[in-house]
Amino acid sequence: MGKWTRRSFITAGVIAGGGLIVGVAIRPGNRATKLSKHVTDDGETLLHTWVKLDSNNVVTAIVPHSEMGQGVGTALAQMLADELDADWNLVEFEEAPAISEFANYPMGKGMLFVGLDMPDFVVPTVDGVLIRTAQALDLQITGGSASVRATGAYGMRIAGAAVKEMLRIAAAQAWQVPVDQVVARDSQMIHEATGRSEPYSAFATAAAQMTPSAAPVLKTPDEFRIMGRNVQRHDLPSKVDGTALFALDVRVPNMVYATVKRAPTFAGGVENIDDTVTRSMPGVVDIVELPPANVSALLGAFSSAESVAVVAEGYWQAKKGMDALNIQWSATDNDAVSSDTIFEQFDRDISAGIDFKSDASQGNVAASIADAAQVIEADYRVPYLAHTCMEPLNATAVVKEGFCEIWIGCQSPLSFRQAVADSLGFDVENVTLNNCFMGGGFGRKSRPDYAIQAAQLAAKIGRPVQLIWSREEDVRQDFYRPAVQSRFRAALDQEGNLTAWENTYAGKMEPTAAPLVPYTVTAKEIGHVPSPTHVPLGAWRSVDHSQHGFFTESFIDEVAIAAGQDPYEYRAARLKHLPRQLAVLKKAATEAQWGVPLAPGRGRGIALQECFGSIVAEVVEVTVNDGDLSVDRVVAVIDAGYAVSPDGMKAQIESGIIYGLSAALYGEITIEDGAVAQSNFHDYPSVRMSKAPAIETYIINSGEAMGGAGEPGTPPIAPALANAVFNATGERIRELPLQKSVMNV
Amino acid sequence: MTVVTVNGIEQKIQVDPATPLLWVLREQLQLTGTKFGCGIAQCGACTVHVNGVAMRSCVTPVSVVVGQNVSTIEGLALSADELHPLQQAWIDEQVPQCGYCQSGQLMSAAALLVQNPSPSDTDIDDAMSGNICRCGMYSRIRKAIKSVAGAQQVESSAADSLEGETNG
User: Fold this and answer.
1) What was the pLDDT predicted at A627?
2) CATH code, domain with A114
C-alpha cells in the first residue's frame, strides 16, 4: 500500500482479514494540516476528516455526499453524533469540499469489500483496475443509494466512536483518572466519582495529538439514542423561505447568462449557423460554438457533440436569441432511426442470440421445457426515460488567469472538477468547485457535460457565465434510462411448479443482479445480448432494476395465474429459502388486506424487488372505470437492515414510488428521425397531486447490513401497478407506459 | 423605466417590458427564491402571487404586473421571525426533499387558503395540480395544507362559539 500506513487510517484493520484501506485519519503532520484550511475557522480543531469540533462544543459532521433531496446530511450526522454521544442540539453538518483529501474512502471500501452494488458511473471515476487491487479511491459520489450503508456505516459511525474514545482518553489524562471511569454524555465528559464535567471541546486539542483507534467499539442498536429517531432535517428551513442556495441562484458580479443547444440527433455537428437575427437582438453578447466534449473513462465515459451557445445579459434574451438562430446540423448515420426501428433491432438481436452473455445459469432449461405441462412465453418492453430534475441543468463559471471557479449541483464533485480541469487544460488544483443543493439528481447530475460547457463559455467570453439549459434541451440531451426488450419463457409442471425460467433481454447496464429472480426454480438461464443504439444512456433512479423489476415481477404474475394460483401465495411459496424477502412480502400483503375481496372494477397487484442492499415489496390498489385508471393506494414495506432516520426513509420510499409511477403511467421518450420527440412537461408528463395515490410505508428493522433507501422504492411500483390492472381488468400490460394502452391515465 | 411593486416595495427597473416576470425577479431584483422549471407554465416552480392570486411568472410579461402587487416566497413569512403557517407546516411535516419546487408549491397553497380557508381534497387537487414535485412529496404537501386549514377552522369555530357566548 506504499505511502499509506496502517496508522494513517482511522478505520484500518476493521475489515476482517484485510486491514486494507479505509477512512482518512487526521493527525498532526498528516492530512489534517492540509485539510484544516478548507474546513476550520479560528477556534476550531480538526479531529477527523468527518468530524469537526469547535470551541463552542459544536460538532460538525463533514459529509462527502451531495444533497439532492435525500436528506443525506441529516442521516449521516445522526450516525456520527450517536457514536460520539453528542448532544444533537450541538450537531451541524456541511458538505465536504471538492478536493481529493475528502475523497470518500468509506464508500469505496463499502463497495469493494462488502459487495455493495457499485453504480456504473462510480467505476470509471476510480479506475476499474485500481478498484480490483484496492488502491486509491477518488470518490465523492452520490449514487447507488450508498450514503448511509457505506459512508455512514463505515465512515461516520467509526469516526464518531473513535473521536469519542480519543476525547475520553484526553479527559482521563487531564483529570488523572482511569479512562473507564470517564463517561461521555451529551457532548460532556463526566467523572462521576469526583463530580467533574467538562464539554468535549475542552479536550479537543489534546485529542488531536493522538492516534485514533483503528477499531473503536461501536454501539449495538439497543444503545442508539440518535439513530432510529425522527429528527428534523437540517436543510428544510432554507427550503421553505427561498433562501436555499441552488446553483441557479448563484450571482457573481458582471455575470452574463447563456443557453446551449446540441444537435438533436446527438452526434451531429454544426454545418452552418445563420445568426443575423440573433446578433441584432438586444442584450445578446455573443454566439459561440463549443467543441465536442470527450470525457475519459476515468470520469464517466461519454462524448457529446459540438454545442452552440447564445450568451446574453439575461437568460430570457439568451433563450430568445437561441430560438432565432437558424442552425443546420450535419447529417448522421442515425437520421432515420426511430423507436420502431430500435425495437425491431432489439427483437432481431434477441432472436439471433449472438454474443449472448449469461447473468445466471442453473440446471437444464431445455429439459425442463421439454417435460413441461405448460410453457408460457411473453415479450416485455420499456421505453427510454429522461430524468427531468426539477432544476434544469446549470452551472456558473469564472475563468481568470489560469484559474477556474465553478458553482454547480452535481452528484460527483471530484470527477466534475477533474473533467472541467481537463477541458480547460488546467491543473486540477487550479479549479475550485462549489457544490450547491441539487434540485433533483436521479443519476443525471453524475455526467459533467454541463459543467464543461459552462467552463468553456466562461473562458471564451472572458466574463463570469451562468449557463442555463432550457427544459427542452434537458429533455432532448439527456443520458437516458435505456429502452429495453425482455423475452421470457417459463415451464410449469402438473402442479404448477416453476421448472424453468428463461429470460433474454437486449441492453445491459448495471447492477448485474437486476434481472435475477429470488423464487425457487428448477432450471434457469438469464442473460443478455448486445444491441447498441446511438441514444446516450445513463443511470436513472435504481438503474437496471427499474426495468427488470417490471419485467420479472410482471412475468412471475403471469406464471402464477397460468398455474391457477394466487400471485401472492405463489411468490411466498417460492421464498422459503429467503426469510427476509418472505417477511417483507408477507407484511405488504397483510397491511394491504390481500385476499379481502374488492368491488368490481377494482384490483390489487403485488411486486417484490431487492436492490442496493434493501428489500421492498409494494401492493397497489387501482380502480378501472370505463377505461379510466385511478391509482388509489400503495402499501410499501422496506427492510433496509436498520432505519437510521425512519421518517427520512419513508420519505425516500414515497419519492421513489411517485418517480416510478410517473414513468409507469406516462414516461416515454421516443425517437423519431434519430432525435427525441418530446420536449417539456406537456409531452413528458409527471404525476401531479390529483393523480398521487395514498402511500403507506412500513419499515422492518431486521438488523442485517444497512441498505439504501433512495432507489429501492422505485422498481416494484410499475409491476405492482400493472399486476393490479390485470387483476381489475384481465388485461396484461407488457409494455410501458400505461398511457400507451387503452386506458386513460 | 418599468415600475413594479414586489413584496410591498416599489421597484424601478430598466427592462424589455415583454420579459417574463420570473427573470426580472431573479436577475434584476435578485429574488432567487422563485424558480425556473419549464418556461411554459407546466410545472409551477415559478408561482408567485399577483394581487393575491397564484400566477406562473415564467409566462407573465413584466408589463402585465405594472401597478399590481406581486409577492414572492421571500415575502410569504408573516414577519422576520414568524413564518407563514404553511411554511411552518412544511417543516413540521418534513415536506421538502430537494426543495426546488417548494417555493412554487407554497405560493400555490397560500393562494388557495386565502380564497378557500377549508379546502376539500378536490379543492386541494385543483389548486395544486399545476405544481410538479419530481421528488413526489404530494401526500406530505396535502397533509401540511390540511393541518393549516384544520387549525384555521378550529380557530374560526372557537371564535364563533366565543362570539356566541358573548351574544348570549
Assistant:
1) 86
2) 3.30.365.10
Neighbouring residues of A436: CB distance < 8 A, sequence distance ≥ 6? A245, A246, A247, A249, A250, A407, A408, A409
Indicate yes or no: CB of B72 within 8 angstroms of CB of A315: no
Cα A13 from chain centroid (whole Å) = 29
Regarding whether A236 and A381 lie in a shared domain, the answer is no
Count of pairs with CB atoms under 8 A, one residue in A, one in B:
182
Q: What is the spatial distance between Cα A96 and Cα A93, in angstroms, rounded to a whole number?
A: 9
Cα nearest neighbour of A69 on chain B: B98
- How far apart CA A11 and CA B61 sit, in angstroms, is 58
Question: Which helix (H) or strand (E) covers residue A309, if one does?
Answer: strand A307-312
Residue A340 within any structural domain of the chain: no
**Short-list A83, A66, A72, CA closest to A233:** A72
Which of B19, B40, B91 lies nearest to residue A240, judging by beta carbons? B91
Shared-domain flag, residues B51 and B99: no
- For residue B27, what are the domain limits? 1-75
> Is B154 found in the same domain as B113?
yes
Asked if residue A335 belongs to a domain, the reply is no
Q: Given this model, what pLDDT does residue A130 score?
A: 27
Structure confidence at residue A142 as a pLDDT band (50, 70, 90): low
Both A276 and A398 in one domain: the answer is yes
Q: What is the CATH number of the domain that holds B118?
A: 1.10.150.120
For residue A65, pLDDT over 80 is answered with no
CATH of the domain at B66: 3.10.20.30
Q: What is the ipTM of this complex?
A: 0.92
Q: Which residue among B27, B91, B135 places its CB closest to the CB of A232?
A: B91
Number of independent structural domains in chain B: 2
Query: B84 and B124, same structural domain?
Result: yes
pLDDT tens figures, A369-413: 999 999 999 999 999 999 999 999 999 999 999 999 999 999 888
| Residues β-bridged to residue A94 | A62
Per the prediction, chain A carries an average pLDDT of 86
Which regions of chain B are under pLDDT 50? Answer: 157-168
B82 and B165 within one domain:
yes
Structure confidence by residue, pLDDT tens digits, A277-316: 999 999 999 999 999 988 875 566 678 899 999 999 999 9
In whole angstroms, give the CA distance from residue A596 to residue A617. Answer: 18
CB distance B38–A239 less than 8 Å?
A: no
- Total number of domains constituting chain A: 3
The confidence score (pLDDT) of residue B27 equals 97
Burial class (CB in 10 A: 0-12, 13-18, 19+), A234: middle
Nearest by CB: B98 against A68, A319, A388: A68
What is the phi-psi region of residue A176: left when phi exceeds 0, alpha when psi lies from -120 to 50, beta otherwise? left
Q: Which residues of B touch A244 (CB under 8 A)?
A: 99
Percent pLDDT > 90 in chain A is: 69
Q: Which residue among B76, B91, B101 sits closest to A237, beta carbon to beta carbon?
A: B91
- Same domain for B152 and B140? yes
Cβ <8 Å between A241 and B74? yes
Are the beta carbons of B132 and A390 separated by less than 8 Å?
Answer: yes
Pair (B114, B137) in one structural domain? yes
Same domain? B62 vs B81: no
**Cross-chain Cβ contact B125/A689 below 8 Å:** yes
Q: Which of residues 668-687 of A touch B (CB under 8 A)?
A: 680-682, 686-687
Per the structure, the complete domain to which residue A276 belongs is given by 247-330+393-468
Indicate the SS3 state at residue A673: coil
Is residue B37 located within the same domain as residue B84?
no
Q: Which of B18, B40, B75 is the last residue of a domain?
A: B75
Take residue A309 and report the three cell numbers written for it: 451557445
Q: How far apart are CA A547 and CA A480, in angstroms?
A: 13
Per residue in A638-679, pLDDT tens?
A: 999 999 999 999 999 999 999 999 999 999 999 999 999 999
Q: How far is B92 from chain A (nearest CA, A)?
A: 8
